[in-house]
């Protein structure tokens, strides 16, 4: 079994879409570990604030099959993948696939977003402070304490699941 870690975000009816996505993920992959949930402003475009979290599960499926499952869950949640920079019902990004370093042009893990965005790094640091980034080598706690990207405010929220 491989621990798969994904980033989840939504800024269109996010409470409903996040809950539905968590249900679909659990149905498809089993038991989930869910990070604290944060809101943050949209990055790269004007839009409603996003709800963001990190979710982990174990899978014995190959990486491509897991990725296909994530795309199916996004589609079931109304995701329009043609709309690259804009509001979205659901965004599921594979961040980690165990300790794998993998890039086939479509799937890249570890995902660069881990080091670039507070809404990805902070939940990782919350859940696995002492785990090490597969290529950087620092712990997620160390990475979070060193994170220096102004303009990425986070607010922790409660979302019953």
From TrEMBL:
- Transmembrane spans: none
This protein's UniProt keywords: ATP-binding, Folate biosynthesis, Kinase, Nucleotide-binding, Transferase
Q: Does the keyword section mention Glycoprotein?
A: no
Highest taxon listed in the record's lineage: Bacteria
Pathway(s) this gene product operates in, as recorded in its UniProt entry: Cofactor biosynthesis; tetrahydrofolate biosynthesis; 2-amino-4-hydroxy-6-hydroxymethyl-7,8-dihydropteridine diphosphate from 7,8-dihydroneopterin triphosphate: step 4/4
Q: Name one Pfam family in it.
A: HPPK
Q: What is its EC number?
A: 2.7.6.3
Q: Which InterPro entries match?
A: Hppk, Hppk_sf
Give the protein family: Belongs to the HPPK family.
Protein name, as recorded: 2-amino-4-hydroxy-6-hydroxymethyldihydropteridine pyrophosphokinase
